[in-house]
Amino acid sequence: MAAAGGEPSTENVSDELFQNFYTEVKQIEKRDSVLTSKQQIERLLRPGSSYFNLNPFEVLQIDPEATDDELKKRFRALSILVHPDKNQDDQIRSQKAFEAVDKAYKLLLEPEQRKRALDVIHAGQEYVEHYVKEKKKQLKKDGKPLDMEEDDPEMFKQAVYKQTMKLFAELEIKRKEREAKDMHERKRAREEEIETAEKAKRDREWQKNFEETRDGRVDSWRTFQAKGKKSKEKKNRSFLKPPKVKMEQRE
Prior knowledge:
With 251 residues, this protein is mainly alpha-helical. It has nine helices and no strands.
């Protein structure tokens, strides 16, 4: 449906751009699917790969809506290309590339993890679509041309790609923060547990030592009391002197 003034509606423009985006993506996937082993290893280990590889569909170069059979075939083909056995001259890097492919494949085998990845991709697409739609509304309201760089299919694709990667990166950062927090909590709990155990051990040792030395302390006290009593009796006797006898004087 055309908008007033004969201009296409923003919704139709967005749908058209979205379809162009998927067309471009599939063309790129088809092109990259014939990359050599060395080129695939370079792609998987390129600078920033720790974030690029958060998107399992990006790692495997497969459509998010691919079937399980397509996913399995793609994994086999790509894993063979980057397998260390096939790249004897670059085993360390090829091993890292293979691990990235294997991790992405195993993640997509889990329904819950696959759904999460799809949700991120859809969120990225919806964000760019919404941005384009709202931006065009504002341009129209301001009486300005509705031309945007996202009108170019390539630019629209890049915008979706960047937004999707940003979302994946933000989720990964939050995951690491939660993991660090959990690790800190576990460490603190463990330290408290050790301190409690050590205190209990010290208390047991003190109680044991107290019990073992009790008889000795009692005997010492009795001996002390006995000596004190004897000393007192001796002292008292020393004050009981016999009276002096007066000598009678003779006349």
